[in-house]
Design brief:
Elements lengths: L1 H6 L3 H21 L7 H8 L1 E2 L7 E2 L4 H9 L5 H14 L2 E3 L10 E3 L16 H13 L3 H17 L28 H12 L2 E4 L4 E4 L9 E5 L3 E8 L2 E8 L6 E7 L2 E9 L2 E2 L3 E3 L7 E5 L5 E12 L7 E4 L3 E5 L5 E6 L5 E6 L3 E6 L4 E11 L2 E12 L39 E3 L5 H5 L3 E3 L5 E4 L11 E3 L4 E4 L10
Parallel strand pairs: 6-10, 16-22
Antiparallel strand pairs: 1-2, 3-4, 5-6, 7-8, 8-9, 9-15, 10-14, 11-12, 11-15, 13-14, 17-20, 18-21, 19-20, 21-22, 23-26, 24-25, 25-27
Helix pairs in contact: 2-3, 2-4, 4-6, 6-7, 6-8
């Protein structure tokens, strides 16, 4: 039924259909949170499964499985981090380079699937930008901005059509920039800038709006002006100021969510009046504070910070399977409880300043989370661990684990149809495919190319897919063991 429907269906509907399909598969995976499996494993389970035959699981998700789920707001912060961490470690990253361009920029492929096939393994601008948006949504602005900038550099500055956002990147090995006139990424590029980098998230039907800026930590100013809203951000020493002006028919109730870089807040004022603030659940390595702003058309939010800077980035730990790891806390911060959705740790021991534990034997990249506190600030810190094969793994000799007391001798003579000495009697079987044209040739069988079996007698017997060459004189020209399998 689907094949009949799709035969006359426009491509745009097909993309919508499959997008919705992948979303619901990913949503099912996200909601399945058994204690022993992390989101990375869930996604691997949920990419897709063959409907018929052996019903094989296909365990390498594409970008669409990640960004559709995060864009649909079905993931919690822990799941969102683990999902984007899968992109970090399993999706191919392709360096973007040019004379005079600093290192560190990279674009990404849509999958790691091989062999190459159109539409399932590309370097496509819309896919890259939607993934960058997912990084913003996962609370990882530094990585999101780097990926976004890499894609803009790739297409708009280094491509064959300056200022353009085409469909396929120069770095697509098979297609290159063959679709420069397609405008696929325009919509998601706009969302990436407005919803991702500037974090403008209106919910007009419910009279609400969240602004969650995704600016890199090093930015001290930014501004944007749209038909319905304008806002300016500036950082002056210890003070961040947001000036927001709404132009909706009815102003929306505004909430500001800000990534924290200092250990204490001295004060928060909205239009000159102090307001209370709270924490949002965050699991990307830094706190996020929630500030209820004004429903007025204009709001000035002023945040005064104090105390030391937060430095919550923990480097990835590498460890052999079943080895012990020791992770010290960041200067000034203390550890709390551990959340280990992937079951990385074996009986962890946690103090204020040290995590000590053995790791499991599941090779690859994994993540657990630890609750941290510094000054007023509290947050969940991801800890990435790469588990490798132990160099001291014992060597297991062939059959060394066989219990000989349970073995018995079996006579296999009846299962063999020939003796080794038969190779000297010029009797062989070959798996050459039978064709009527080849069999009708009087003196030869043409196998294609330069491969020909010359028949020096009439004792080659026709058969359905099987040739038996009986004792006699034959010659085989331009034929190798790789082209014909003898048995």
């Amino acid at each position: 039924m689907l094949l009949v429907l799709f035969a006359d269906t426009p491509p745009s509907f097909l993309f919508l259909f499959f997008g919705v399909f992948f979303f619901f598969q990913a949503e099912d995976g996200i909601r399945d949170r058994s204690p022993s499996r992390g989101l990375g494993d869930v996604y691997k389970r949920q990419e897709y499964q063959d409907f018929m035959g052996h019903r094989r699981l296909h365990e390498s998700p594409g970008l669409w499985t990640i960004y559709h789920a995060l864009d649909s707001d079905v993931a919690d912060p822990f799941q969102a981090y683990q999902a984007t961490r899968y992109v970090d470690t399993e999706i191919p990253h392709i360096p973007v380079y040019a004379d005079g361009l600093e290192e560190g920029y990279a674009t990404i492929a849509t999958t790691n699937w091989l062999p190459y096939s159109w539409s399932i393994n590309n370097v496509a601008f819309a896919e890259v930008m939607h993934t960058a948006l997912a990084y913003f949504q996962a609370g990882r602005p530094e990585e999101a901005y780097r990926l976004m900038k890499s894609s803009f550099l790739d297409g708009m500055y280094l491509g064959n059509s300056p200022g353009n956002l085409g469909q396929v990147s120069f770095y697509d090995a098979a297609r290159g920039e063959c679709y420069r006139d397609f405008g696929d990424p325009i919509g998601v590029a706009s969302r990436l800038l407005v919803q991702g980098l500037y974090g403008i998230l209106p919910d007009v039907l419910n009279g609400k709006m969240v602004i969650r800026p995704g600016f890199p930590a090093g930015w001290s100013k930014a501004s944007i002006s749209l038909p319905d809203i304008t806002y300016h951000f500036v950082r002056e020493k210890d003070t961040d100021i947001y000036r927001i002006e709404q132009r909706f028919k009815a102003p929306l109730a505004l909430t500001l969510q800000v990534n924290v870089g200092r250990e204490r807040i001295h004060s928060v004022k909205v239009n000159g009046k102090e307001v209370d603030w709270s924490f949002a659940e965050a699991a990307s390595g830094y706190p996020v504070v929630v500030i209820p702003a004004s429903s007025a058309k204009k709001a000035i939010v002023e945040i005064v910070w104090e105390g030391n800077c937060l430095n919550p980035v923990l480097p990835e730990t590498q460890a052999e399977a079943l080895a012990e790891i020791r992770i010290p806390s960041i200067l000034g911060a203390v550890f709390g409880e551990i959340y280990d959705p992937q079951g990385v740790l074996i009986q962890p021991n946690v103090s204020d300043t040290l995590i000590k534990s053995k790791v499991n034997d599941h090779l690859g990249h994994h993540t657990f989370f630890v609750r941290m506190k510094q000054g007023q600030m509290e947050w969940w810190q991801p800890v990435n661990v790469q588990i490798t094969k132990s160099e001291k793994s014992p060597v297991i000799l062939p059959f060394s684990q066989v219990n000989t007391s349970e073995c018995r001798v079996m006579n296999m003579d009846s299962l063999f149809n020939a003796n080794v000495t038969d190779i000297f009697r010029n009797e062989y079987l070959t798996c050459l495919l039978y064709t009527s044209d080849a069999a009708d040739e009087e003196d030869s069988v043409d196998l294609g190319g330069r491969r020909t079996i010359k028949k020096k007698n009439n004792r080659i017997i026709r058969g359905l897919g099987l040739w038996r060459i009986r004792q006699g004189t034959i010659s085989i020209t331009h034929l190798t063991m790789q082209q014909v399998h003898w048995r």
